[in-house]
Amino acid sequence: MKKSLGARTLSFPLPAFLVGSYDEEGRANLMTAAWGGIVCSEPPCLAVAIRPSRWTFSAIVKNKAFTVSIPNSRLAAAVDYVGMFSGKDHDKFARTGLTPVKSDLVNAPYVDESPLIIECQLHNSLELGSHTLFVGCIADVKAEADLDFSRGSLDINEVDPIIYNSGGDYHKVGASLGKAYSIGMALKA
To answer: Domains of the chain (ranges plus CATH)?
Structure first.
């Protein structure tokens, strides 16, 4: 038997994205976002949900662009700091020691120390209530040169992304359960 928990924002897993943008004065800014992910394959799109009160919100609207840096576990303290303070009052790059890099494809910065970067041109936005969903067409994905992409994908353990738990803590990726499009074949017979 299951018990009702009511309508709430409870889902697993959640990413710990670092969303990069340039504010009204052209300063590089970051925010931590857990509500987002890939939403379309043709064209390749990624979405993030952001409250209109956030400093990043107006920057994305103005510049029609954002980046998503996928931080690894070594950056957990910086990810947490970025999520606690507003770019209106804090230079998050300076405070965390992270390095902003200007995208050559979209008008937004990304975090040099992150192993994986997704550069997005704003495609659409959808007001949902407390948050607006920003959908970005992916202009490019950049990965650290030493990550193995020879099979057309990256090893999640090499990237070592941070996972956010809506209960309020960060996690690492665990062990593989098996190959996709393979382990389910045992149920076919």
So the answer is: 14-187 (2.30.110.10)
